[in-house]
Amino acid sequence: xxxxxxxxxxxxxxxxxxxxxxxxxxxxxxxxxxxxxxxxxxxxxxxxxxxxxxxxxxxxxxxxxxxxxxxxxxxxxxxxxxxxxxxxxxxxxxxxxxxxxxxxxxxxxxxxxxxxxxxxxxxxxxxxxxxxxxxxxxxxxxxxxxxxxxxxxxxxxxxxxxxxxxxxxxxxxxxxxxxxxxxxxxxxxxxxxxxxxxxxxxxxxxxxxxxxxxxxxxxxxxxxxxxxxxxxxxxxxxxxxxxxxxxxxxxxxxxxxxxxxxxxxxxxxxxxxxxxxxxxxxxxxxxxxxxxxxxxxxxxxxxxxxxxxxxxxxxxxxxxxxxxxxxxxxxxxxxxxxxxxxxxxxxxxxxxxxxxxxxxxxxxx
Length: 365
Description:
This protein is α/β, with parallel strands linked by helices.
């Protein structure tokens, strides 16, 4: 996409009358951040309060007419729904509104398609994209399976000719075979590290919590190069592929430290399934540093999202060390977090304490 001409986007959210106002608000704000991360520009947001999504069009008839008028007035390039649209809903919406429509899942898939660099990451994204697209190859969905530009249409397996369902199923089987080979190779490397006695540390946390910045800060102190190792900025899902480096702790113990993909609320199950092997390897580390953006007003809820997923993946509680990042943005350090660590990756404060804690825990293993 041309950076100077970002796609103009209308966001559509459905607030359940029995739902939580706060969760809806944060989800919609997150969708805005995702749209920006994909390279788009949000020009309007449409919200409807409703008991439940309409089975045929997700939003109600009156709100759909309002959306049509908004489209005629603003002429957006794309409409993004903050929810997962069924094949029927997607087809009916595309027929009612002559504009490209995607949902939250497709938006996240698009961002992942932009960021993946490793072979396994690219395969995982493509598998999730194909499995999600398979039941949606109708109407404009067929068009979106062809080579084209724009948010929601990127992906490693795009081709000019129409992808029929049989061909997609064959691609899915082929990708699963390739992934099995990659995962087998990764398991061999993992066994080699274990035989060599190398301990591992994984940085986990909500997307944009500052994991990559903390990873760089730790490497600057304890990596042989004394320099930053990964790109870090404020974009959601800046890190997608796992990056691993060897660092040396004060006791001269050598350990491997990994920067991993960030978590997010309402993460599409297609992506959870696709990235499960990567996430499982992360939680299998000897120590998990749960990085939290303590300056974020929603950080407690985001901590719960990460903790829930870690629990689902079988992470052991005593392996987890909570690190509150971006402490430089606080007016004061609260005294009710005595078992946690407050750091600033930006200023480098608190990094030595984290390294000492890691050294201590490694000595106990």
